[in-house]
Each structure stands twice: as structure tokens, then as C-alpha cells.
Amino acid sequence: MGEAKVIKGIGASPGIAIGPAFLLDRNQQKVMKYHLSEHEIEAEKIRFREAVDRAEEDLRQLIAELPEELHEHTGILESHLLMLRDSMVFDRTLRFIESERINAEWALNRSLDEIKLLFSRVKDQYLRERAEDVKYVVKRIHDILSGNHITNFNNLDEPVVLVARDLSPADTVQINQENILAFVTDMGSRTSHTAILARSLGIPAVVGLEDITARVLSSSKIIVDGISGLVILDPTPEQVRQYQAKKEDYHKYRLDIVYNSHLPAESMDGFRVKVKANMELIEELPSVIANGAEGVGLLRTEFLYLRQKKLPSEEELFSAYKEVAERLAPYPVTIRTLDIGGDKFVSSVSLGEELNPVLGLRAVRLCLSEPELFKTQIRAILRASVYGEVNVLIPLVSGVLEILQVKEFIETTKAELREEGVEFDPNIKVGIMIEVPSAVMVADLLAKEVDFFSIGTNDLIQYTLAIDRVNEAVAHLYEPLHPGVLRMVKKTVEAAHASGIEVAMCGEMAGEPMYVPILLGLGLDELSMNPIDIPRIKRMIRSIKHQDCIELVASLLDESTAVEIRETLMAFLYRHFPDDYDLPLGRYGDGQGRWGQQ
């Protein structure tokens, strides 16, 4: 046995697995390019169309055969069906076959290269990863063109850890948990469709390992730690014993935390906080419900605009919003209006070139400059408000004038619906995202114009500290515990409460356990986060006194640096949560507590 190797990746689905590796598709298929004669072009186009027909047939059959527990995820595979016929893939490939007289496989690759280039302009990681869905669709067509067999995971002799360069959602839904203990991949991220499906199936997964397929031998023993994002190759007997114990501990922890997930998020001295979910896909609803969310605090709407070339219709938007509202009733759903432009794109809306797109025509600015685009979405949201408690959330508001324009726009749209005899909730609540410093500074004025605030810490931190989170040269300076950031949150909460409105937080900071005492002490009314984070956040809130958190925040606001604040905070966590924070940087050295980034 060689020396054990520990590789760090991204924990996409929590859990521990120990077993033999099964290597899938280690070598990338080589695609040959060849030129066609004039009389071969039409036959090649027919070959391509037939491959798409076959891919379509295969996906429809897969959807029809999905087990009951995965019916909620049919939308992911149905979006792949749409992509098969999308002009970016289908029409473009046919054009390349004809104009360049090249074979279908090479033309398909040319189409994929152009699509990747378009998505490479997108800074938002979640949206950039939608290019992966196009890649999965292209690979399915490739496999049919080349005669490759579709992967079947049901013919394995023993339970294994699947090791692959990447797995598509279609691959993932076919995984039989009796045969596949876990999976690890070179590619991928925590927000990919494959990761979402893995969490729904309860399969431990670590992704983004870069070269795991080149480092693993089939049948060699492997440990997968989907909690910490670690993979151990050729583990020692002692490591196997440690992880067997960790696996048992985690199983008990999950039973405890699932029990807590549907209890109210109320501190030991009676301070009540609403804990809600952030979501974007209908397929995430089962996770939202299962993890005990008290509604959706942030329903992102961008994916509906990015999964197809044309803009979604009012009916398409209404149908999606209605489904979420109905299925979560009586819990509320807060729908954020389109936050697109700048680092994202809509193929049907021409934004032009911008020197600094993140500070350009995006979010509420784009919506106000494209009234038909905005009206379609507002009408859909208002119509959906009949089917449950629906709130409207406006992103990137920087001052009072913008919200006055939005409110006027909403009232005009309401009047149109009344004239048409269309029902809606006349008292629908309108809130704004607090994510730019100017909004914080006039929060007292903004609070008079809206029904609630929602603090978007991701943008607020980067705009406050003048840091681009995706720029590796300065990303390390992104610091939620910067005194300036904490003071901005405090000022926002005080302004909201002075005007009698509630304030939520929906940025990543809301789902981090170590920040919970600070957020309680600052007086946040609501925290909204990734559904899988909800049980542990609720558990932490129920294990602490609000008064202790208030005193903690008072001491932190006297500190002058983030380093001092972190030291004081960690001392507080060791004192109040000794079982979860029992080492200088947390049990596993990441400052995130016992189970790290689940």
C-alpha cells in the first residue's frame, strides 16, 4: 500500500463513504475533424438531426422512468430537452456543417466553443455554470454520433465510489444507491445541477478535484468526506477507523439536526428569528421543505431568462412563480426581480459594451430602462400573488428616486390588471435589497417607502471594501467581519426598526454558523440561506441566549480590526459551543465549526 494522499475539493453533498474506487471515462474521447464534399453535406445534416432525435427519445424515456422521489427534478432534464433544439446548439451546428463543410462531431464542438465563450463573460458562478448543462447535452449527442454506449451504473459487482471527470444530471439520477456509495469528479461545483441532485439523493459527493481521475486506480480504497470536501486515496488503517467513527457521528448528528429542522428558530430567552431559504430552481423545493424553511426569503429569477435564447413569456414566469407560491403556502415567498446585466447576460436584450459592467446597466437600472421586460415580470408576480403570500424584492437600489419609480411602475401595472379583470393581491409587499453603501446611508429615507429590507451581504461587502470577489489578487481581502461592514448592517437594522419594518439578510453571511451570534445580536428579523444550511442554523439559534449575543455585538463594535473581532468572536463560540468549536480554529481547522461547510 502506498502513502495516503489527501486531496481537497468542494463538498457538494454531505456524508462519509469508504469503499473501492470505480473509474469512469478516464480518457477524453478524441474527436476527429474531416471535410465533406458537396454531396455529403445533406447526409451529414441528416445524421446530426437523427442523433438529436435519439438523444431526445433517450431523455424522455429517462424522465418517464424516474423514481417517485426524483419526480421533483424532472425540470432539470426537461431543460436539457429544450437545449437539444435550442438554436445555439441545433441551428448553429447545422450552419457549421454546411458553411465549413465539416463533420457533425466537429461542428458540434465549434458550437460548444462559442457558447462557452458567451458564458465566460458571466462573473456570477451559479449562472456561469449553466454552460455545463449545454456541455452535458452536447456530450449526449456526441455519444450517439460516435456510437458510444450510455453509462449504466446498475451492473456493478459491489458497492463502489464512482470516480469521473464529470457527471451529468442524467447520469446522477440513474445512480443506484445500493451500488454507488459516493462520487467524486474533476469538474463541478456546489451549485451545479448534479450537486443539487446528489443532495436530494443523499449521496456523498466531492467535486472540483481537477485531476482525481488521473490519480486514482480502479479498485483502490478511497474515503470521501462530502462534509469537509476531502478525498483520501489509499487511506491507512487508522484513517479508515477515524472515518468510520466520523461516519457514525455524522449519522447521529443528522438525526438530531433533522429533528431540530422543523422546530422554531427561537433563542433560549425567547428571541424569535424567521429562517428561510434562498432558491432558484423548482427542483430545489423538496430540499426547502425537508430542511424546515419558513418560506423562501430569496427566489432568484435569472435562470428562467438564461436557459433559452428568447425571453420567457408572462405565462412561463407566472407558471413558475405560481407553483412555488402554491407549494409553500401558507409560508411566504419573496421573489427578487431580474438581477441581470453587467456580469450576466440576456441574449435577447442588447446591453452594449461597458467598461465596468458590474457598476453599469444591471438589476433595477436595467428593468427601469426596459419597461416591457420589467412589466412582463411584474405582471407574472402579481398574478401569482393570488396563490400564496408573495412579496416583491427589488435589487441594487441606490436611492429613493429608484424605489419611487418602481412603486409607480407597480401601481400602473396593478391598474392594468384591474381593467383586465385579473386577480392579484392588492396589498403585496414591496421590499428592497440593501447591497450598496449609498442605500445604507439613506436607509432611514428608504425605510419610509418600502415594506421590508433584505441585506445582500455578497455585494454589500465587495462594494463597501472595493473588492472584486472573483479577482484572485484581492479576494483574500473580502472580510464579512470588517468593522465597516458590521456597522453598515447595524445602521440598516436600526433604520428599518425605527420605521417599523423588518429586515432580513439573504447573502452568504446569513448561512454561516459562526456569524449567527453576531446577526442575532444585531437584531436581524430574518435569515435566508441555502436550504441545507437551515437545520444547523436553527439548532445554533435554539442553543444560545439573545442577550448574550447583544453583549457580544456591543464588544465587537468597539474593536478596530477584523482580526480583533474574529478573536473575540471565536472565544465566544468556544465558550458557548464547546462541542462544536474545541480547537483554535474549529475542530477541523476551518473556523466553521464541527461539521464545516456542509
What characteristics describe this protein?
single chain; 598 residues; alpha/beta; 8-stranded mixed beta sheet; 13% strand; globular; disordered C terminus
How would you describe this protein?
The protein has 598 residues and is α/β, with parallel strands linked by helices. The chain is 45% helix and 13% strand. It has 24 helices and 16 strands. Strands 1-8-7-3-4-5-6-2 form an 8-stranded mixed sheet. A hairpin with a 4-residue loop joins strand 7 and strand 8. Helix 3 crosses helix 4 and helix 13 runs parallel beside helix 15. The model is unreliable at 342-347, 351-356 and 582-598 (pLDDT under 50).
> Structural class of the helix and strand makeup?
alpha/beta
User: Strand-residue fraction?
Assistant: 5-15%
> How many strand elements?
16
Oligomer: single chain
| Principal-axes shape call | globular
Radius of gyration: 25 Å
Main-sheet strand order equals 1-8-7-3-4-5-6-2
Rounded mean pLDDT score:
84
Low-confidence runs of at least 5 consecutive residues = 342-347, 351-356, 582-598
- Major β-sheet annotation: 8 strands, mixed
Helical residue percent band:
40-55%
Number of helical segments with 4 or more residues: 24
State the end-to-end CA separation.
Answer: 31 Å
